[in-house]
Write a structure and sequence with these properties.
Layout: E1 5-9, H1 14-25, E2 29-34, H2 37-44, E3 50-54, H3 60-73, E4 77-82, H4 97-107, H5 109-125, E5 129-133, H6 146-165, E6 172-176, H7 185-190, H8 206-219, E7 223-224, H9 230-239, H10 241-252
Parallel strand pairs: 1-2, 1-4, 2-3, 4-5, 5-6, 6-7
Helix pairs in contact: 1-8, 3-5, 4-6, 9-10
Amino acid sequence: MKSESILISGAGSGMGRLAAQKMAQAGYQVAALDINEKGLLETAEGYQNIRTFQVDVSDYDAVLAAVLETEKNLGPIKQAYSAAAIMPLGKIEDQDAEIFSRVMAINYFGVVNINKAVLPLFQSRNSGDIINFASIAGWLPTIYMAAYDASKFAVVAFTEVLYHENIDNDINIICVCPPPVKTPLLDQARGTVWPKVFDQGEHIQSEDVLNAIDTALMKRELFVFPGKRTKSIWRMRRWLPNLIWKNVHKVEGI
């Protein structure tokens, strides 16, 4: 068993669950954080080295307590994955203001809280990996996705600043920007509004995202765009935004 630990938020399902199980199989002690207790128990089933923490990532004090307990009982944190997210979709006028607040609280402030809790520890050791999950939606706004897009744009900006503030030390800081991934997160879109543009692009597997993260860590890259077409979409958004919006309006019929 390795002496270092891995901390993962959003570990009750999807990419967070796969990352937790993958790291446990590699011999790490894993701190699995999620508000979903049932999902956490499913993640940890069969793994003696996955410790579950039922935590709302929007609560900084709860996040900090989990980080400090992990350091004390599981070993120094080597990597911190911020993967917790929600994705209820809909037109701006059709979504309550509370939804916008909740999406930002989990998707953005959840990342901030994890980062703020582990950063002093990483800086004191001059080592550690911070993996923040944004999305191609953090670069590419589209109809029905205002709340989610805004939260992921915020993650992109926050992580880029964090990277440059720590550029002279040995902390790896990664901002992951995948296209739609085949995880339960997409079910939230199906349960609200399903953008037709989702049917145009590729939906990749969680394993593809984790493999891209491993490569980015080795290369010390800031942004990672998993999937064959993702980086091309990012370039098109930068250089041909009006063309992107023309396609969105055509596809959605708005």
